[in-house]
Write a structure and sequence with these properties.
By secondary structure, the chain is mainly β. It has 2 domains: about 150 residues, no CATH class; about 100 residues, Thrombin, subunit H, CATH 2.40.10. It contains 4 helices and 17 strands. Strands 3-4-2-1-9-10-11-6-5 form a 9-stranded mixed β-sheet. It has a 6-stranded antiparallel β-sheet with strand order 12-17-14-15-16-13. Strands 7-8 form a two-stranded antiparallel ribbon. A hairpin with an 8-residue loop joins strand 14 and strand 15. The radius of gyration is 24 Å and the shape is globular. The relative contact order is 0.13.
Amino acid sequence: MRYASGPLIAYLNANTVIKAAWCYTITLQNATAYRWTGCDMPLTYGGNTFTAQADNSTSQPAIRRGAIRNARGMEVQTLDLTLLSGASVLIGGIPLPLFAHNGGFDGARVKVEWLVMGPSGWGDASFGPVVIFEGAVASVDPETFQVMLHIKSDLERLAIPMPRVVFQPGCANAFGDAGCGKDLGLLAVSGTATGAPTSTSIPSALAQAAGYFAMGTLTMTSGPAAGARRTVSVFSGGTLTLSTPLPVAPVAGDTFSVAPGCDRTFGTCGTKWANQPRFRGCPWVPPPETTR
């Protein structure tokens, strides 16, 4: 079921010809929101402006929307959005396909709304929108001049296995979540690539102890790999070794942000983070045995 305001329902019942537009809100993991409309003019409602759909000569992608299937019951809805981009379409200062390839849309939230124009015609958003679809990006397919986002509705969260916490030696918290209590925003530090970095090894002037950033997350903040996130497998002597290669090798002077990690063992929780009261593992669970 979708909610529509009373005035909108009355207007639809009284009119056989209406003017309407599709509006799209894409919110990245860093809370940056992009608001676009399929209309050929900007639309404003709720204090937000949705800029007009663009062609290949401008700085905004055109949008092609796939079908939205409605069904009774608890079915997970899916939606495909294709962002058509020209060479001048940039997100975060880099071309849209490269931004997607770097992981910029990973975990982003997408909301699709249908906006019926009021009696005053185009630009009259007095009726407010009807939310048609809302969910998170499940996968991304970047190509040379387009990016396809595969989105699943929030019912996907019901597929999480239960019980959520099982008896295991490792901590059930994710490092930095509400259960853990550590603020990764405060623990993260900024750095600059030095020397001759590669797609898997980034030397820097970071002076933390060896292993401090192991299992942490590095995010490139400038250069051709901006937006790319990778797990740090080894940290020693200021050099960060990544578990998987970056899509583009950085160069000296490119900046990054890196947060430490945790192996979620009882010992590390105490010696490295002094956080054992929040530990949610069972370190003395006996190992599985076999019989012959």
